Amino acid sequence: MADVLNLPAGAVQAAQRQFLYLFLVGAFPIVSPGNAFTRADYIEAMCFALQKVAEGKTLRLIISVAPRHLKSLCASIVLPAFILGRNPTREIMVVSYGGDLARGHAETFRRLVQSDFYRALFPNVAPDRRSTGWDNIQTVQGGGRRAMSLMGPMTGFGADLIVLDDLIKAGDANYATMRDRVRTQFDEAIYSRLNDKRTGAIISVAQRLNADDITVHLLEKGGFDHLLLPSIAPARIELPLHGGRRFVREPGDVLNPGREPNEALDRIRQEIGTRAFNAQYLQDPDLADGQYLRLEDLHLVDSLPDLDLFTRRIQSWDTAAKDGPASAYSVCVTAGWHREEERWYLLDIYRDRPGNSALKDRVIGLRQHWQAERVLIEDAAMGSALLSDLRKERCTWAQKVTATEGKLERFLPATDWLKAGFLIIPTDQPWFDAFRRELLAFPNHRYLDQVDALVQFLHWAKHKARVLLDTDPSTGRRLGTHRRVANRRQ
Q: Rounded distance, CA 26 to CA 122, Å?
């Protein structure tokens, strides 16, 4: 696409008006004076995703990429200028964590829209000379770019596009109170600034800093496209570029080898530590091994054996404390006993917010689907009401579980059982990645519902399974012999 810049001046200008990436190339000497622009496919991928927002094809976008990779320049400076050049009536709000950052971006934006390059490209854009403040740069057509800090006053201002640019500092991200503050400000102040909730767009650009950061909060709301750009590709990645081309990365490929080759990334990892590196550079704050478990501790298989080989199925439910879209999840873990290998397999994980009214039907439906012989339900929160309802319907398969210890006290024995091969886990299931993240991050993950359901099953299986295994699966009659639950390694 860079070959376009070799065309006659008129054709180049037409292309720069049409494509954000080419507009960035032309604007770069102005927004980053003294630095040469170096072409990189990941930059074009960012611009391609941002242009879909400019064209109204994407209304919610998150870009996660390491520091110093032009995300702020592209989303907070170049994109607003590009949008206003094409439609000077658009109202754009850019929110940053602090006033100094907001002011620096605003001054760079003003320098761009007042440049000869910009005025030649978009001659119909007329800046309003009355907007002299750094935080509010307007056009006479009624549009403009307003810069704001996270906790600054927002009442009275509206926007067609809101850009969230690093809403929290790296030093604050490990404090739950600061993360809560950012989430509350977005929910109660920032989101309401959209002029039209149906057509207004929101972009968030940030490095990942914590497993409970604003990126997770936005993703859980749903509807966001997520452009994930780890510095080292964990798997094959294909991203769209202009003209139907693709940016293909193979496992281990470095995002920007010209600026940050492998040796530079290794040095950064040593300097900031593995946990911070995994978050900020791999965009995966859950990736680091936890305090209590490593990925190598788990007994993994590529796929499940034939389901007909599982003679018994047990389900364990961890229900949410309350109903509502902002509540925790309700989780059902389904495990099966392999009759030939004589060990447990993790067959399925259900994780959703079905609501109090639908929870009972979901429990009954999943039990029927898997033909579970026992359904373990903790006698707490929504689980207490659920158990009461199931008793009224004579659901004898529902078993009450009462937790007498804290989460950590229950989790620690379970780690020993997992390390000993008490449970085999398939890696090809759609739930595996989210489950793996939560399990290894314990106790630092925002949600621990999958872990709680798993630990509840493990405690039951370790202490009660012999009774179950000593009964006839059809009649329930005791057989008088015990089969040991094998703790064997894979």
A: 13
